[in-house]
Amino acid sequence: MSPSVWQRLWRGGCILTAAVCLSGCFSLQDKQPVAQQAPQPAAAKALAEQKKQELQKKSTPDKLPETLGGAITSDRWVIYKEKQEEEFKGNVHYDNGIYAFRADYALSQRKQNLFTAKGNVFARYNAPDGAWYELYAEKAAYNYQTGKGYAQSAAPRQIKLVYQTAKGDLITAYAQKADFNTKEETYVLSTNVRVIYQGKDGQRATLKAQRMTAKQKENYALLQGGAEAANADYNLKAQTIEYKGLQGYTYAYGGRPLLEGKTEDGTFAIIADKVTAENTSRNITLSGKVEGWTVSKQINASKANESLGLNYGTAQ
Q1: Is residue 162 a contact partner of residue 142, using CB atoms and an 8 Å limit?
Q2: Buried b vs exposed e over 82-109: b needs ≥16 C-beta within 10 Å?
Q3: For the chain, N or C: smaller number of CB within 10 Å?
């Protein structure tokens, strides 16, 4: 995948910050905890539509919008003045056309600058250029002062991050948990990580690992533990695969990396101590105890095979 694809993929982790727009927007005047019913759907819809029109005029991808309490709906809304907390219980919902958020339960803790959501968590951001981001999880939290947060699901369920580019390319990532820091632009997916890239032109690539670390500013990604990268032409397996976008190289090492695939001439499978690939030219260098085989039509048709009574069949 190209560097731009990596950058856009991990920006999808920022989608959880849409939840911030649900916090810090209520007036706390009562001295005791107060339970209130959420605004009526008709009133909430009208306020949401009004805010949507305002956001369309001034919203930018990197700035979260202000919101009105009336734009949020839930079965029950509880305010705790002394603790500076708000609880939203049952069918929590917010949608202004740009940011959308849903959960079974949400808690805003102003003193901690923390927003937490539980149960069927969903968040979406619609970018001005037509791209969109989505997050699905069982639980998620975000500190809007530090930029740190996480999303997770209990096995066998996984979180899902989806990003569709403005051009129509689709990137989907699965994991047990995602930890991120939106200020540092770092993201870590852990446990049974799988990333699928589906290009609008039909190209497809898959990444797998037990842990995947990405640093957006450095255009860097690290796949650890049973790392695998595959596309229509080759499959690379290693203990570790390291992508360095700024340097223009990808490295595979640990556990004797295996590179297998096909070329115009035939098929191959090679193992070595280390594999180095140039990201632009796709030239590949294998080093350290290189072993393997290659099969091609030319080799199969060789007269030497006939004289030795060998038949390798047809390369697939």
Answers
A1: no
A2: eeebbbbbeebbbbbebbbbbbbbbbbb
A3: C
> For 31-136, where are the alpha helices, taking DSSP H only?
41-58
CA distance 94 to 204: 34
**Cβ–Cβ under 8 Å, residues 171 and 195:** yes
Token pair belonging to 299: 């080799």
Amino acid identity, position 272: A
Q: Measure CA 15 to chain center.
A: 9
Amino acid at 60: T
| Domains of the chain (ranges, CATH numbers) | 3-232 (2.60.450.10), 233-316 (2.60.450.10)
Q: Give burial (CB, 10 Å; 0-12/13-18/19+) of 239.
A: middle
CA angle 100–105–106, rounded 5-degree value: 65
Euclidean distance between CA atoms 98 and 61, whole angstroms: 10
CA dist 193 and 224 (Å) reads 10
Residue 194 C-alpha from the chain's centroid? 10
- My answer on whether omega of the bond before 3 falls inside 30° of 0, hence cis, is no
Q: Would you write out the chain's pLDDT as a tens digit for each of its 316 residues?
A: 333 322 332 333 333 322 222 322 222 333 333 444 444 455 555 555 655 555 444 444 333 334 334 467 899 988 898 898 989 999 999 888 888 999 999 998 989 999 999 999 999 999 999 999 999 999 999 998 999 999 999 989 999 999 999 999 999 999 999 999 989 999 999 999 999 999 988 889 999 999 999 998 899 999 999 999 998 888 999 999 999 989 999 999 998 999 998 877 778 899 999 999 898 887 889 999 999 888 766 655 655 545 544 444 443 3
